[in-house]
Amino acid sequence: MLKRRQSVAPGMTIEDRGEAELITHALARDELSRLRDIETEQVDFRKGLVRLGRICGYEIIDGRMETEYVAIQTPLTDTMGERVTGLEDVVIVNVLRAATPFVEGLLKAFPQARQGVISASRDEAAGMTDDGTFPISIDYVKLPEIRPTDTVIVADPMLATGSTMEAVLDEILANNPDPEQLLVLSAVAAPPGLVRLTDAVPQADLLTVAVDDELDDDGYIVPGLGDAGDRAFRTT
């Protein structure tokens, strides 16, 4: 079958901004604005993360996956159609816990995806080190088989210092072959985290809806959207 590769190009809603690829779809920006709003309460926040995950999933399909031309028969005649390929070769890794509703949305775009879970958290009590990182605790890892032909999407709404995501990617790559595509997907990201991951895991492509201004002294993204896990699950 004749195949064509989708690509990131001017006019598409994934734009290469150097430090990251930015998902610029109007609905993604709209959902992110609602998520940022302090007046958005828990139920709407969770639903917003689900919607944003779905939008990002569709944009990944449109911008990063191949299609093939196929012969089909309509009720009236024979014609050619186009199908997305590789949808059965997708692995989505949920970085607990904030990513859970985000991943719920991704699965609406990738219903055939194999799923992995990694529970990782930074030691807030220890504080941020001089190099801008946090000690990271990995408490649970359950991953499916990852094959060289796979597209692996590692989802976490917040990419701040990059400490947690670097530890998660180390776990994924430790005993698996490099997948065809390794995508790190966030709703918002901060420049220090993007720089750290680019240096530490250069084979990963970083996708986000927004690159925010900075990190505060506690390592939180500014302007950000607060603690996504606490807001989604109504904890403090």
Q: Indicate the percent of residues in helices.
A: 25-40%
**Which geometry do the CA atoms define?**
globular
| N/C terminus separation | 53 Å
Q: How does the major sheet shape up?
A: 9 strands, mixed
User: How many beta-strand runs?
Assistant: 14
CATH topology-level name: Rossmann fold
Q: Can you tell me the residue ranges where pLDDT is under 50 for at least 5 consecutive residues?
A: 1-11
Strand content: 25-35%
Tell me the number of helical segments per DSSP (H or I, 4 or more residues long): 6
- The class by helix and strand makeup works out as alpha/beta
Note the run of SSEs as H and E. EEEHHEEEHEEEEHEHEEEH
State the name of the first-level CATH class: Alpha Beta
Let me know the average pLDDT.
91
Domain tally: 1
Radius of gyration: 18 Å
CATH architecture: 3-Layer(aba) Sandwich
Question: Which descriptors would you attach to this protein?
Answer:
236 residues, 14 strands, alpha/beta, Rossmann fold, three-stranded antiparallel sheet, single chain, globular, disordered N terminus
